[in-house]
What we know:
Elements: H1 2-53, H2 58-61, E1 64-68, H3 72-88, E2 111-117, E3 120-129, H4 138-149, E4 155-163, H5 172-186, E5 191-196, H6 198-206, E6 211-212, E7 217-219, E8 225-233, H7 237-244, H8 254-260, H9 269-272, H10 282-291, H11 301-310, H12 316-319
Parallel strand pairs: 4-5
Antiparallel strand pairs: 1-2, 2-3, 3-4, 5-8, 6-8, 7-8
Amino acid sequence: MRSFYQNWNRADKNVNEKNKQEKLSLMLIRNAELLREKKYLPERRRAIRLRRSRLTEVGQSLDYRIKTATSREEWIEAFSLAHDRYVELGYMDPDPSTMRLKIQNILPSTRVFTARYEGRAVATATLIIDSPLGLPSDAIYKKELDMLRNKGRLVSEGSSLVTAKEFKCSNIFMLLFKVVYAYAQYLQTDDICIAVNPKHARFYEDILLFEPIGELRYFPSVKDAPAILERMDLRTAHARFADIYNMEDFDCDLYTFFFTANNGDESEWGKSYPTGGLRMSLEDIRYFFVEKTDLFVGIDDDKLAYIQKCYPDYDFTRLLPPGYFSTR
């Protein structure tokens, strides 16, 4: 009997030990799974968000036409859409011109893109290339932008990225940003910077792989709305998108969308985006910057000289009010 109980206890001990080992093994496996899930959580979050948002779904884009504004009528449409959305969002009071534009819009290198639906502009985005006129975000992030400039980098800024209220749930923004990105690459800029509201920062960082380079500040030109300066390094963007979006989960990945899908013939880019820039007529400059706005008021001599350099064949004494040059 004694031997029986000894054998029973020994067998029970062996069973318990085996159970402990199995439990330990299961725990280690589970821990490994948790670590893997934690490691790939951002990627999985991106995959889920992309699927739910249908950001790159081709079917949605068939009814939209992305176009560069090249006429006064098209610029008015874009600037008016930006104005109306900024007013609706509380970022500005209504302006008598019913348009929102910046002095950098006068530059031939600046591009205003619109997404058109059934003949009207329903979204717009502007890309501004750095110049002696500076960038809009210099108003509160000059130190951060100067750090990039001092490294010899050509910086650009995305501006006035707005979508008509009834189209805000579509993928129109991604179609516009694809063109903005392609144009920035075509001009061989090194960075795209965008000052975004903090509530949109996660989208730019998680999905578009921007990185914050400026702390939270408040933008006077949009009624002191909060902003964070985000930056996309175009020198490394290709590799980063390939690295992040190479998982099987990404059945609508942005690497394919930005780098391999429908990029078109690069020889055609020179026709659409001539390196000499897209120049406004003298009459358009007068209309937008003298008659409708006062953007020339207070501009310093160096900036004015640069604008004149961009239009060497224009007589700016005919453009600006009488006595403008003599009073400077």
